[in-house]
Design a protein that fits this description.
With 192 residues, the chain is mainly α. The chain has one domain: CDP-alcohol phosphotransferase transmembrane (TM) domain (Four Helix Bundle (Hemerythrin (Met), subunit A), Up-down Bundle), CATH 1.20.120. Helix content is 73%, strand content 4%. The chain is built from 7 helices and 2 strands. It has a two-stranded antiparallel ribbon. The radius of gyration is 18 Å and the shape is globular. The chain starts with a helix and ends with a helix. The mean pLDDT is 89.
Length: 192
């Protein structure tokens, strides 16, 4: 297994650590940063999420730079993204920081695209994420990070950055899902 795939797998292994930090009731107290007060465990959880998210860029960078792009990597990378983002969004619903209906739309898109990828794989096609899919992923990561960090930096200005970021992520999630199905519509022509 090459280095980029190992980095991708490390992202998957960080998910349970993130979940334990965010959902187990630790008594770590509160922290105030830039005028925003939040539980220390939310701050630590946000850092773990951000570190896990940056591995998405790192594994892709190494895979392209050293010509280590593999079918396994094309499959694992988007799967790791979906698992991490889905876990974080479910945590945000549990903490009542995100509306459940928005998270249902986002996770439904992820399941639908994964299903389409499986159909394509069955026909011998492994499709890497396109630019719109990458924009979708990064807008989701920004929205999740802002929500986990309690809208840090913007709360003192009464600017709802985290909420706006969530709406932007939802928009790109829907758009990229529709685009993915449109670009791969040939699959449905063969399955009559």
């Amino acid at each position: 297994m090459n280095l980029p795939n190992k980095i991708t797998i490390s992202r998957i292994f960080l998910i349970p650590i993130f979940l334990i930090i965010m959902l187990v009731q630790f008594e770590w107290g509160d922290i105030t940063l830039l005028g925003t007060t939040m539980p220390v465990q939310h701050f630590v959880g946000a850092l773990i999420f951000i570190i896990a998210s940056t591995t998405d860029w790192i594994d892709g960078h190494y895979a392209r730079k050293y010509n280590l792009v593999t079918n396994l990597g094309k499959f694992l990378d988007p799967l790791a993204d979906k698992l991490l983002v889905s876990a974080a969004f479910i945590v945000l619903v549990d903490l009542e920081y995100a509306a459940s209906w928005i998270v249902i739309i986002i996770i439904s898109r992820e399941f639908a695209v994964t299903g389409l990828r499986l159909i394509l794989a069955g026909e011998g096609e492994v499709v890497a994420a396109n630019m719109l899919g990458k924009i979708k992923t990064w807008t989701q990561i920004i929205a999740i990070s802002a929500l986990l960090l309690h809208n840090i930096m913007f709360e003192s200005f009464s600017f709802p950055f985290a909420d706006i970021a969530l709406w932007v992520a939802t928009f790109f999630t829907i758009w990229s899902g529709c685009d993915y199905f449109y670009l791969n519509r040939h699959v449905f022509k063969h399955s009559k």
